[in-house]
Amino acid sequence: MIQMLRQSGTLLGFAAILIFLTIQLPDTFLTARNLINISQQLSMLAVVAATMTIVMVMNDFDLSVGSMASLAGIVAAVLFAAGFPVWVGLLAALSVGVLGGLFNGFLVSILGILPFVATLGTLTVFSGTAFLISDGKTIFGRDIPASFSGFTRAGIEIGSVKIPFLTLTALAVIALCWFILEQTNFGRRLYAIGGNREAAHLAGIRVKRLRLIAFALTGFGAAAAGLMYAARVASANPTQGSGLMLDAIAAVFLGMTMSRQGEPRVLYTLVGVLMLGVLDNGLTQLRVDSYVREILVGLIVISAVATAAFSKRNARS
């Protein structure tokens, strides 16, 4: 009974939030327009959280995803401003994300630096680089091509509802991450590494190479989210991804509370993303100060980490 309550506690909390906001905001919360708006707001976080799940499966994590997202957006915007085609900016930004992820993976898997220390260092490196190449300024206006920013206003119409491409992109990334982790040998090996790294190595799994690849995928996701954000607001600045890291980690840990073994799972991470996004949207509509949300997210992280650690300890005993 206690185990069931612990696993379903996050879902019950999510349901309670939905009921509360529906009662408090009967005319605006559960409307098609607001739900579409929430899906767009969450698309960047969903991409980062889904790819963050890949490294957290191995008991690693990446603190640099927010600054990586900012750097990717800046790289694309600088190239746009210099007159390069949109595809060049997109390719360069995504390449920067992959290279940044590979660098994180090199520090962690090859040099053996703790993920917290390594990615805390690269967080400042990526952030400083974004400020350097942008001269600390926001890039917007005519420097951002309409064909790039127009992506966020387009979508697929289903009846009277238009599903934005941002939402569809996030769903595609989530589906891909789910397939990688749940349906491939690569994903199963990542879970084996997370369960016991030494035993995985003795079993013939190439631990260092897989960790390197996993960090590269997370870097790619961060860069993609940075591009999505820049397209949505038709601008890029060196701090625009700063809030992604904490929310992504919080979403993964919230998902871990629903797993019997306390393991990260992409679909559970999605529930965590939805919970944070719905809470943020509701508090904004209720005109609650932003610092209250920060307090709530911090408390959610603490409770989620504690619950996940407790579940893992019980699963091993």
Query: Which residues form runs of ≥5 with pLDDT under 50?
Result: none
- How much helical structure, as a percent, in the residues? over 70%
Tell me the fraction of residues in β-strands, as a range.
Answer: under 5%
Judged by helices, strands and strand pairing, the structural class is mainly alpha
> Major sheet: size, sense and barrel closure?
2 strands, antiparallel
- State the shape: globular
Q: Overview of this structure, please?
A:
75% of the residues lie in helices and 4% in strands. The protein has 13 helices and 4 strands. The chain has a two-stranded antiparallel ribbon. Strands 2-3 form a two-stranded antiparallel sheet. A hairpin with a 2-residue loop joins strand 2 and strand 3 (161-164). The model has no long low-confidence stretch (mean pLDDT 89).
Summarize the entry for a quick read.
The protein has helices spanning 2-24, 32-56, 65-81, 86-110, 115-134, 146-149, 165-183, 185-195, 197-202, 207-233, 244-256, 266-285, 290-316; strands spanning 139-140, 155-158, 161-164, 235-236. The chain is mainly alpha-helical and 317 residues long. A hairpin with a 2-residue loop joins β2 and β3 (161-164).
